[in-house]
Design goal:
The complex is a heterotrimer of chains A (163), B (780) and C (289).
Chain A: E1 2-8, E2 11-17, H1 23-29, E3 49-52, E4 55-58, E5 70-73, H2 76-79, H3 86-93, H4 103-120, H5 126-132, H6 144-162
Parallel strand pairs in A: 1-5
Antiparallel strand pairs in A: 1-2, 3-4, 3-5
Chain B: H1 18-23, E1 38-44, E2 50-56, E3 68-71, E4 79-81, E5 93-95, E6 101-102, E7 108-114, H2 117-125, E8 128-133, H3 140-143, E9 159-167, H4 170-176, E10 179-191, E11 199-205, E12 210-215, H5 220-231, E13 238-241, H6 257-269, E14 273-276, H7 279-285, E15 288-300, E16 306-318, H8 326-337, E17 347-355, H9 369-387, H10 391-398, E18 405-406, E19 412-413, H11 418-428, H12 430-438, E20 445-458, H13 462-468, E21 477-483, E22 489-493, H14 502-514, E23 521-525, H15 542-569, E24 576-579, E25 582-585, E26 588-594, H16 595-603, E27 618-623, E28 630-643, E29 648-659, H17 666-685, E30 716-720, H18 738-741, H19 743-755, H20 766-772, H21 774-779
Parallel strand pairs in B: 1-14, 12-13, 16-17, 22-23, 29-30
Antiparallel strand pairs in B: 1-7, 2-6, 2-8, 3-7, 4-5, 9-17, 10-15, 11-12, 11-14, 15-16, 18-19, 20-28, 21-22, 21-27, 24-25, 25-26, 28-29
Helix pairs in contact in B: 5-6, 9-19, 14-15, 17-19
Chain C: E1 7-10, H1 14-24, E2 28-31, H2 37-42, E3 50-53, E4 62-65, E5 68-72, H3 84-89, H4 91-97, H5 103-108, H6 111-117, H7 123-130, E6 134-138, E7 143-147, H8 148-151, E8 152-154, E9 157-158, E10 165-172, E11 178-185, E12 195-204, E13 207-216, E14 223-224, H9 226-232, H10 242-252, H11 263-288
Parallel strand pairs in C: 1-3, 2-3
Antiparallel strand pairs in C: 4-5, 5-10, 6-7, 6-10, 8-9, 11-12, 12-13, 13-14
Helix pairs in contact in C: 9-10, 10-11
Classes of the chains: A alpha+beta (163), B alpha+beta (780), C alpha+beta (289).
């Protein structure tokens, strides 16, 4: 067992973990972040994407011990229980989710992309949006609603930035 | 339809369930966490066909942590029995844990339980199974070879069932035909793959003698019934809960042996037991789909009219029959649906399921119809080409235009828009057809346009299952609607919601019937303790039957509200309209009572009720499918661009014109269609579950089993025609599966069109398209 | 699908990492991005007894050092996309990185990890072989530079000895009149390629003076194509005979025939990709000359 300190969604906690425990499992079981979903456990579906020190990372390919003294954010940190982050709202209005299982991973992958586009002040081509989500599998939506949601979130972000 | 003008049915209402799904607060099976829980790992067969010589668990003693091991000896006699009452059918049972023999790689042989999931997996590695290998039955041809021994004792061959169906005079059709076309088409084996795998948690409380089983299932009530029958417990003491379910697509629309087994283990160990399926076991051992071969013979008149069709259908079913749709379900469905949307009067089909040493076939979105429509619509294009007819013209010449239509097998089709859908698509594709034509001179880049025209029997009712003699037996969906004294409404729904938006669409339906807003309707589902008995969510029945049941039950409450309001306003109930939260006198809008007040009167101030009226505002309704279901129709079109030197296909456009009757919520309908289409694109181009000659699976991870990713997929264009059916309360037909039915046919037709060759099998991946375009490289 | 037990060690310096790897020998594995190693561990196909975490070591520098461009083993794939040195000197490299995985993999995967994992169709091993790169390998006692052509021995098998780890890759800087290209085709974008071809060219007076070519998908590791490299010398940039080169090369290889694709298809695809890579490189050369 190794003692580590993780800051998860702003809350710091020190705990002892076995080295082999996947970050995904530790976030789910030790921090109660059940929004971290495991879809394949071999890094091929993107469901478990979280931010490790601000960068999207597959939590099924990461051992919790590697993250000592790191800051992690999960989907729970985006818009709280009311899901009011602009990208979450856009997912809802554009029907970018159905069963919801892959959704936290898509959100955590795409939030930095949306932010980047707003900083660059441009609405990305569909092709670019699809490339940004190419590591995430959604089996329900056919991606269409997710592409629309990203486009809408960027558009809304540019509007509110201009306002 | 209710008397009031619908306000919410048909509106683009944003989904209520999205909030918990987006915020990470949804509860899926892996989020069910109980104190003192044991974690289960399956030890699965590593070989496809073998006698089990010995299971050695002695290595577990030295691990230093407690473990529990169970094998087929412990569960002897417990099994999955999925028999169809056909005299020709050879029955097999799948033991919950293999007894003496394994018949496919991935079959459960033993379970190991430990107090931690990682440790359970460690322990399972120490359970050693000694096998005595047997030769495998590896494919359809071997399964039909009488010299190869049957997989089960007492069987006469590996043909599980072979039956025929016919209508009209096929010999006369053949004799009258100017042209006979005979073709064989194949569709590959697939897995279904919802993003959340399966999983089961069970807990037995001896104090109240209740066994609770949480399962990621589409059919909680059927799981309850099977557990009751197999374990001998009363249904009243079994609670099955489907929590949030991360996609089902039919994969989770069967009762699995593990659901029974884990309930049994919870009772046996006295502790909660949890199993969360991993991706490898999902791919190799949950449910497979498709794996069909169809030989079709069409008889066509000199003027291009279909006179008759003869079909020979084989499905490689894998090792066992699945419950409740059985191994005869898949090939039988093909036989039933091949007449399709075309008007012809002679038909004869022979269908068979054969047993091989592979994962069993079960239901997956579209169930047999993606394969049936692939064959049917490829044949239509092949015939059109040989006769020199345009694919649209040939279909329009043969399409059914008069409704209701009784087809060659006696099935009655309700009102549809078959010809209109084709005509609309023809207009939408005009430019692409011209561009495809212009690309014919190129030997490097070809463009092709392909269509698939099909109908889909949805909302199958009890008579359909009675005819098929399958253990599902019934097809109804029930709902209980309850208005509380504050006017808020709860629906306890027999459907299970796993992405279909039912928590929203059902609220829309109730809101319209009751004159309130959908926000004031709370839809509960998935828990057998609170919801009325129903068959679950599968077979495109949610909107037509579930929506119908909600409408009928809510209307009963609305009738009572009207009666109370009429009493208070001293008018007649038929003069009362429920709208915007008020019961309003029709010709005197100033005269009204708040619905909330009526709800309070019905349950709190009951002294104000009309004399003789009972208290409460609760209603139950159950809606069954029409004898032949109701038929949605659609035309799908694909526009492909093929890079001839490499075989790489780019899907330029995918267009859908569909008719599912009354649309409850366009947001949801478009989502269902698009999601289905992309799964269909996966079937057409990528997804292939492959076994080697020894029936070892080769595609056991997402690195090998390829599903569509965003960059390869175009935006899916969806157009609607709305022809309400008289056969369901709201005029809605089913639509959950249709999207997945057409793409294989449409894309194959587009590839055929682009390359000028007949495509006979899927998947159309780079290698197969390259092979199909060989002739263009040779002439280049 | 969870890993077997192992012990974890965070290296605080390169020497510390090498000490640990020395101590654990066969049982020790360095872990960087973990994008290839951890999936294998989750399937329990890899079960190292000790993981040495090198992520916090300063091995992510891309710099010119005399005649070479040195890329530290921990450089993440994302770093190449806007790196001016890669763009200026190694156009085939820059082409190749666009085929690597997906955004999350690009942010986390490292060149040392990709090279050490030696997937037969991964992009960076092919790039290293194409450019005659040296894999700089250290152990507690020695530093070795292994030419990429000698580094990859088979699928997932390299010349690394127990206790050794890749610390950098050194790419010889090219002359001025120099270009290249890399093309790959896979069933889906981001997948490892069904096949890929990389080309570099030196040229003068409108003709090729020197060429290098690498192919992934023809064998269990990326291979060079000496016959084609020789064939291309002297060919005019405007008509390099690329189709013929593709045909010659395809006839010389013996690719796998398996459930993913037939040998015949792989050969056909490699011929076509060879043609395309040569044509792209020649077009670029013409633009530059």
């Amino acid at each position: 067992m190794i003692e580590i300190t993780l800051e998860v969604n702003g809350v710091k906690k020190t705990l002892s973990v076995e080295p082999r425990r996947l970050l995904a499992d530790v976030l789910r079981h030790e921090f109660g972040m059940s929004g971290v979903h495991i879809g394949c456990a071999h890094g091929a579906c993107g469901c478990c994407t979280v931010h490790l020190d601000g960068t999207p990372r597959l939590s099924c390919l990461t051992f919790a011990v590697q993250c000592d003294n790191s800051s992690i954010s999960t989907v729970e940190s985006l818009g709280g229980t009311t899901a009011d982050h602009p990208l979450q709202k856009a997912f809802r209005s554009e029907h970018g989710l159905q069963c919801g299982y892959c959704t936290p991973g898509f959100l955590m992958t795409l939030v930095p992309f949306v932010d980047e586009m707003v900083i660059q002040k441009r609405i990305p081509e569909d092709e670019e949006i699809r490339e940004a989500m190419s590591g995430n599998i959604c089996r329900c939506t056919g991606y269409h609603g997710i592409v629309s949601a990203v486009r809408k979130a960027v558009t809304d972000g540019l509007k509110s930035g201009a306002a | 339809m209710n008397a009031e003008r619908p306000k919410f049915i048909g509106a683009r209402v944003q989904r209520f369930e999205d909030i918990r799904l987006l915020s990470g607060t949804a509860r899926y099976i892996a989020d069910i966490d109980l104190p003192n829980m044991l974690h289960l790992t399956f030890v699965r067969a590593e070989t496809a066909h073998a006698n089990i010589v010995d299971i050695d668990s002695s290595g577990l003693a030295d691990l230093g942590f407690p473990t529990w091991v169970f094998t087929g000896k412990d569960t002897a006699g417990l099994s999955m029995k999925a028999h169809q009452d056909y005299p020709e059918m050879q029955y097999s049972e799948q033991p919950l844990l293999a007894e003496g023999k394994v018949r496919f790689v991935g079959e459960p042989v033993a379970v190991v339980l430990a107090e931690d999931a990682y440790k359970a997996e460690d322990a399972a590695e120490h359970l050693l199974v000694d096998y005595d290998l047997l030769p495998v039955v590896g494919n359809m041809e071997q399964a039909r070879d009488p010299s190869i021994p049957p997989l089960f004792d007492g069987w006469s061959s590996n043909v599980i069932v072979q039956r025929g169906m016919k209508g009209g005079d096929i010999e006369a059709a053949k004799a009258a035909a100017a042209h006979v076309f005979k073709r064989t088409y194949k569709t590959q084996r697939q897995a279904g793959v919802p993003m959340e795998g399966r999983g089961v948690v069970a807990y037995y409380n001896p104090a109240d003698r209740v066994l609770t089983v949480w399962s990621s299932t589409q059919m909680p009530h059927l799981v309850r019934t099977y557990i009751s029958e197999e374990l001998g417990l009363p249904e009243s003491r079994i609670r099955v809960v489907a929590p949030d379910v991360g996609g089902g697509f039919g994969v989770k629309g069967q009762v699995f042996g593990d659901e029974i087994l884990i309930g049994w283990l919870a009772m046996k160990t006295g502790r909660p037991v949890r199993w969360i399926e991993d991706r490898r076991e999902h791919l190799i051992a949950s449910i497979h789909a498709r794996d069909h071969q169809h030989t079709l013979e069409a008889y066509v008149s000199a003027d291009g009219r279909l006179l008759g069709l003869k079909a020979d259908i084989t499905v490689d079913n894998g090792a066992y029959s699945t419950y409740p749709f059985t191994s005869a379900g898949e090939p039988g469905m093909v036989g039933k649906v091949l007449p399709g949307p075309y008007d012809f009067r002679a038909y004869e089909a022979t269908f068979r399921a054969v047993a091989t040493n592979k994962c069993p076939i079960g239901t997956y979105r579209g169930v047999a119809r993606p394969s049936a429509v692939f064959s049917q619509e490829r044949l239509m294009d092949d015939i059109a080409k040989e006769l020199g007819l345009d694919p649209f013209e040939f279909r329009l010449k043969n399409i059914i235009r008069q409704f209701p239509y009784k087809n060659v097998l006696g099935f009655t089709y309700d009102e549809g828009s078959y010809a209109q859908a084709l005509e609309k698509m023809q207009v939408l594709l005009a430019d692409d057809v011209a561009e495809a034509e212009a690309s014919r001179t190129s030997s490097t880049k070809r463009i092709g346009v392909g269509i698939a025209c099909f109908i889909e029997q949805t909302a199958h009712g009890t008579p359909d299952f009675t005819r098929r003699r399958v253990p599902i037996e019934t097809g109804y969906i029930a709902a209980r609607v309850d208005m509380a004294p504050d006017g808020e409404v709860t629906i306890d729904l027999g459907l299970q919601n796993h992405g279909q938006g039912l928590e929203t669409t059902m609220a829309q339906v109730a809101a319209d019937a009751l004159g309130i807003r959908p926000e004031n309707v709370y839809v509960r589902h998935g828990d057998t303790m609170t919801t009325p008995y129903s068959v679950g969510t599968w077979g495109s029945r949610g909107g037509p039957l579930g929506g119908g049941a909600v409408h009928v039950a809510a209307t009963k409450i609305a009738d009572k509200l009207r009666a109370i309001a009429a009493h208070l306003l001293q008018t007649k109930p038929d003069q009362i309209e429920l709208v915007d939260g008020r019961a309003v006198q029709r010709d005197n809008p100033g005269s009204y009572v708040e619905i909330k007040k009526l709800a309070r009167i019905a349950q709190r101030n009951v002294e104000q009720l009309p004399e003789g009226m009972g208290t409460g505002l609760e209603a139950h309704a159950s809606v069954d499918g029409a004898p032949d279901g109701c038929y949605s129709n659609a035309v799908h079109a694909a526009v492909v661009e093929i890079d001839v030197p490499t075989g790489k296909i780019k899907l330029r456009r995918f267009v859908v014109v569909e008719d599912c009757g009354t649309i409850l919520n366009p947001l949801v309908v478009d989502g269902q269609v698009r999601g289905g289409v992309v799964q269909g694109i996966g079937s057409a181009m990528l997804e292939h579950f492959i076994y080697d000659a020894e029936c070892q699976p080769l595609t056991t991870s997402f690195a090998d089993y390829l599903m569509p990713l965003a960059p390869e997929i175009p935006n899916i264009e969806v157009h609607h025609i709305e022809t309400p059916t008289p056969l369901t309360p709201l005029g809605a037909k089913g639509l959950g599966e249709g999207g997945a039915i057409g793409p294989a046919a449409a894309i194959a037709n587009a590839v055929s069109n682009a390359l000028g060759v007949a495509v006979t099998s899927t998947p159309l991946n780079m290698n197969s398209v390259w092979k199909l375009s060989q002739h263009l490289r040779e002439t280049a | 699908m969870r890993p077997a037990s192992f012990e974890y060690h965070r290296a605080t310096s390169l020497d510390h990492a090498l000490e640990l790897l020395h101590q654990f020998g066969d049982e020790g594995r360095p872990i960087a991005g973990g994008q290839s190693l951890v999936p294998m561990m989750n399937f329990r196909l890899a079960r190292p007894g000790h993981l040495v975490d090198i992520n916090r070591l300063p091995l992510n520098v891309i710099e010119i050092d005399g005649p070479v461009l040195r890329i530290g083993a921990l450089t993440r794939h994302i770093a190449y996309f806007d790196n001016p040195l890669i763009a200026k000197y190694f156009p085939a490299f820059l082409d190749a990185v666009h085929y690597i995985g997906h955004p999350t993999i690009r942010r986390n995967g490292s060149i040392g990890g990709s090279i050490s994992h030696a997937d037969p169709t991964a992009e960076l091993p092919a790039v290293a072989v194409l450019y005659d790169a040296d894999i700089v390998v250290r152990s507690l006692e020695t530093t070795r530079k292994i030419n990429a052509a000698e580094f990859f021995l088979s699928a997932y098998v390299t010349a690394l000895e127990p206790g050794e780890m890749v610390v950098a890759i050194e790419f010889p800087l090219p002359p001025e009149a120099y270009t290249g290209s890399f093309v790959e085709l896979s069933e889906r974008s981001g997948d490892f390629g069904m096949a890929s071809i990389g080309i570099t060219l030196e040229f003068a007076d409108g003709a090729i003076t020197k060429a290098a070519m690498v192919c992934s998908g023809a064998d269990l590791f990326p291979i060079r194509a000496p016959e084609i490299e020789e064939y291309l010398v002297g060919k005019p940039l405007a008509s390099p005979g690329s189709a013929e080169a593709g045909a010659i090369f395809a006839a010389s290889i013996d690719p796998a025939d398996d459930h993913i694709a037939s040998a015949e298809y792989r050969r056909g695809l490699i011929a076509e990709l060879t043609r395309r890579a040569i044509d792209i490189a020649c077009t670029r050369a013409l633009e530059r000359s």
